Amino acid sequence: MCKFIFNISNKCVILNIRRIVMNIKLVAIDMDGTLLNDYGEVSDATIEALKAAQRKNVEIVISTGRVLKSALYFAEKLGLKSYTIASNGAIIADRDLNIIYNSPIDNQTIKTVVEVAEQENIYFHFYNENTYFSNKYISEIDKYYNSSKERLKGQNINFELFDDIDEIINRKDLNIYKFLFIDDDLNKLNKVRDRLREIEGVNISKSGFNNIELTRSDVSKGQALQYVSNLLGIDRSEIMSIGDNDNDISMLEKAGISVAMGNAERAIKEIADFVTKTNNEDGVAYAFRKFILE
């Protein structure tokens, strides 16, 4: 497949772009660093592009590492009427907000992961559908989920502080989907990553330079995207995926056209078919105009 960057004007590339425009029926979009700019907002240009694509009956599927409640909040605010993928693919909601797929982490694995985190003295939290749990309270993390900005009010993600992990895992009907570890000490982060990889049945990824994300081994955005596309009867060649980081790789690989943001890590750009502009330059809207709207 041809690879593209946004300032290429080669005739062969343009012909391929025009051919792809006719076929995109589903777009899977990451949130942080992709759909959202660095202020945690969706630009007016991007909102208009999403609306225009929906008028062409294109399915717009949010695919994020965030907790489900946050993903559904943005989907509603943006008027998206499709499926929603959250927690890196561990949970999927349908158009009516019903959970149609989930893959929680088992209790023994949760205990093992917490033990590693506590031994290495690294901040962590984990999610269910609407709550994040931690043994430490950090105000910056809480603000991330509950922004005071007017445009982002209403997420109201719950927070629970615990002393003993057994307090959490002994609850009935509680599903934990993802762990997030954060530390600016990259040596510590690498050590923790190596230890987590020794745990059987987990998948390790990241969504930023200073974090680690952990789910069950059968969980990925790519697997979730394939699940949704099968339900909709949409072929891989009719899918476009847009992302910026390691946890987006699997869904980029499941798409007919894979788009890396201009602010994406180098490794993501190298595997993508097209590199658009950055998340602060309406990169999602630019990709929509290239492949869907023109």
From TrEMBL:
- Gene3D superfamilies given for it? 3.30.1240.10, HAD superfamily/HAD-like
Superkingdom assignment: Bacteria
Molecular function in Gene Ontology:
magnesium ion binding; phosphatase activity
Q: What is this protein called?
A: HAD family phosphatase
Entry GO terms, CC: cytosol
Alphabetized PROSITE patterns for the sequence: COF_1 (PS01228), COF_2 (PS01229)
* Pfam families attached to this UniProt entry: Hydrolase_3
By its UniProt entry, which SUPFAM superfamilies does this protein fall under? HAD-like (SSF56784)
Q: From what organism does this protein derive?
A: Soehngenia longivitae
Q: Which InterPro entries match?
A: Cof (IPR000150), HAD-like_sf (IPR036412), HAD-SF_hydro_IIB (IPR006379), HAD_sf (IPR023214)
NCBIfam families, per database record: Cof-subfamily, HAD-SF-IIB
